[in-house]
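Input/output pair, single chain:
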Amino acid sequence: MSEETKIHTLDPDKWIDSYADYLFNYTIARVSDAEKAKDLVQETFFAGLKSMKNFEGKASERTWLISILKRKIIDHYRKTNSKKGKAEVRMNFYSDGERDGDWLEERVPQEWNGGADAEMESEELGAALQACIEKLPEKYRMVFEMKTIQGFDTEDICNELDITSSNLWVIIHRARTQLRKCMEDNWFKK
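Output:
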């Protein structure tokens, strides 16, 4: 019987001995938190037990468990990056210790109402910001524009660019840090 037509079976009594280390290593590389990785592996085993009746035997036990684990990891990041979670994410706006201030992830600047001067200043600010965006490394620029300007969903960006959601948030953070530095050097020091 070839590997393609082989029907695989489940043996939950051996899951911990056979797959716990592999699943943990897979998870820790994606969530960087040992306790959360252990929880996700445990949730994977419980979900596997609950859905054993759905196992068709087309994939190996390990492949099937990994597919469950991937969904658990995605759910973890969705929960972390939900609106409630984002409202708690703060990033220091200034790099020096003399000034303080944080960005709340979900805060959007209010519209300016200052007439012609404000409109001209707004256009200049927009041009300076666009110039700084264009200076970003290509991948940073692409991810930043897709997420922040074009409003794509995290999952769509990750699928399109073949990156993980944690990688996306690291790229967004680095892009914002570089933009902040560029704007401080080219706009705020005028």
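Residues 84-97, 99-112 have pLDDT under 50 and may be disordered. The CA atoms of residues 136 and 142 lie 9 Å apart.
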